[in-house]
Structures are given as structure tokens and as C-alpha cells.
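Researcher: We're teaching a course module on how sequence relates to structure. For the next exercise, students receive a sequence and then see the predicted structure as C-alpha cells, so they can try to spot secondary structure elements on their own. Here is the exercise chain.
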Amino acid sequence: MSRPIHFEIQASAPEKLAEFYGALFGWTFAKWDGPIPYWLIDTGSTGPGINGGMLPRQGPVGTVVTVDVADLAATLEKAQALGGQVVVLPMDVPGIGKLAYIKDPDETIWGVLQPVSASGC
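Model: And here is the predicted structure for the students to work with:
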């Protein structure tokens, strides 16, 4: 079975957005020393997950990646405090957990999911 192994974020201001995601999720960013402006994103090594990259926006926003969080309510509150907004209110996904969508300060939509194991549902 195929699984996602990488994601990319296109950003109008990559350095500013790196600060947002670093503060929100604890991700770290490293500028790639290659021929194009590109930042490698390390999302950590605890549990399942993927790493990604960020580059200057080259087209329309169109990808939503869902991020696993331990506390959905706290994550939504923090996202808003950092300049994001909640665009889809939390909902129960039976057998999966609680899901909401946020929009980051650069207009990219992300899903945030508190899995059943973390939510007790």
C-alpha cells in the first residue's frame, strides 16, 4: 500500500511561516543549500509521521495535510493566538478521533486530528 512520505507547503513568506509552524507544532526548519529556495521540515521522530519541505508559493493553495495532535482544543487555541483561524469547527470522526481545520496566516488549510487514543472517545 502506498503511504505519504513527504509534504510540501508553498508559502508567500517562508521564514515567517516557519516561525508559525515551529511555535504551533514544534517543527524545525533548515534551509536547503541547493539551487532553489527550499526549507526542509523535520516534524520529529516520535510515533508515525512524515517530514516535508517548504518553498516560495508557485501556484494556488490546494493541498490539505492532517496533523496528529494530543489536545485538539489547545491546538486550536494556540493556532488562533499565532494568527491562524479555525475554518471547520471540531467534529467527531467515529473510530478515528476529533477533527478540525485551521487556516494558517498564509491562507493554507490544515487538518488537525486528536486521535481516539488521545481523546478517549
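Model: If you want an answer key for the exercise: The helical segments are 14-25, 72-81, 116-119. The chain has a mean pLDDT of 88.
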